[in-house]
Amino acid sequence: MSELVRIENLQVYYPIRSGFLNRITDNVKAVDDVSFVIEAGKTYGLVGESGSGKSTIGKSLVGLEDPTSGKILFEGKEVTTIKQKKALNYNKDVQMVFQDSQSSLNPRKTIGEIIAEPLKSFGVPGKIEAGYQGERSFDQVLIDQRVLELLEIVGLPARTITQYPFQFSGGQRQRIGVARALASNPRLIVADEPVSALDLSVQAQVLNFMKKIQRDYGISFLFISHDLGVVKYMTDNIAIMHNGRFVEVGTTADIFNNPQHIYTKRLLSAIPSLNVRERGEKRAIRKAVEQEFQNNKTKYYEKDGTRDKAYDLAPVAGSMTHFSAVKREEN
Ligand SMILES: Nc1ncnc2c1ncn2[C@@H]1O[C@H](COP(=O)(O)OP(=O)(O)OP(=O)(O)O)[C@@H](O)[C@H]1O
């Protein structure tokens, strides 16, 4: 297992100002002395209630926030501050996917322009066919080639290159966000609540798609979520956060099967609502599967233990592995 990112004793404090002179009188300890390692090709999950400090860790990692103290190492090199990150061109290797694809995609730019942004900043991999005599610059041709390739990777048709974000569904916009993140061939993607704004059946598609990208390109994820079902499905290791600190860390299986800390137990015991939620999710997914089969003029039935295309819609929550459906051609 090779180590990609090491975070040592990270602290991020935000000043609180008050009074007539707007002086700093205190600070919010958003992240208070956390350390962890993200392995290459693996997914590390941060779980915790709202305000526990998850996003602040993500922001420090991608360079949207300078830590108060502590160290961030990428492949052994220090990239703690924004200045150090710039010096090593680190942002090429680490990209972010946000929860709100509506506001993270510029509404005035086409999909082609949005996906091309990192290519313009970091350069385009690839080469032009020998003998090219077109009027467009080499760079522009390479950018277009790469954008089309990225659209194909995220499953969007080539014609969408000239469309605008408002012309897409939430799930499709999230795919565009992932395409943009993938453009610079990153080693790590910080995904901050990437599916919490999506319908359940669309959540499943986007999560499975992120897993596929990880398999195909060996990308690591820092996966931030308050949804334990999603985290159980997506991650290899988890840290449970509370008030800026890690209260428990471990493999996903250990944390779910054998939680030690009282706070983790409390979080997990809130999942009985999962049973209720799970039934709701099953219904939602069954509906999506039905719809898909109707569209394809096929019949279906459910059967445990059988795996096929429809099954890929199912496991939104890690606990839903028993639900499956089988696609049958009509006679
Ligand atoms: N720019 C900022 N200035 C001041 N305080 C901030 C700032 N950003 C975050 N905070 C505070 O830091 C703490 C941690 O916030 P953070 O967004 O990291 O939590 P979170 O666990 O990601 O929450 P959520 O799930 O709601 O996004 C909170 O108390 C928040 O109010």
State the strand order across the main sheet: 6-7-8-3-9-10
- Nearest-integer average pLDDT: 80
What small molecules accompany the polymer chains? Answer: adenosine-5'-triphosphate
**End-to-end separation:** 50 Å
> What general form does the structure show?
globular
Overall strand count: 12
Given as residue ranges, the uncertain stretches (5+ residues, pLDDT < 50) are 272-276, 297-331
Q: In percent, how much strand structure appears in the residues?
A: 25-35%
Helix content: 25-40%
Instruction: Please give the count of helices.
Output: 11
How would you describe the oligomerization state of the chains in this entry? single chain
* N-to-C order of helices and strands: EEEHEEHEHHHHEHEHEEHHHEE
Largest sheet: 6 strands, mixed
Computed structural class = alpha/beta
Concise overview:
With 331 residues, the protein is an alpha/beta fold. 37% of the residues lie in helices and 26% in strands. α5 (138-153) crosses α6 and α6 (170-182) runs parallel beside α7.
Topology:
Blueprint: E1 3-18, E2 23-39, E3 43-48, H1 54-62, E4 69-74, E5 77-78, H2 82-87, E6 94-97, H3 101-104, H4 111-122, H5 138-153, H6 170-182, E7 188-192, H7 200-217, E8 220-225, H8 228-234, E9 237-242, E10 245-251, H9 252-257, H10 262-269, H11 272-295, E11 298-302, E12 325-329
Parallel strand pairs: 3-8, 3-9, 6-7, 7-8
Antiparallel strand pairs: 1-2, 1-4, 4-5, 9-10, 11-12
Helix pairs in contact: 4-5, 4-6, 5-6, 6-7
Bound molecules: adenosine-5'-triphosphate.
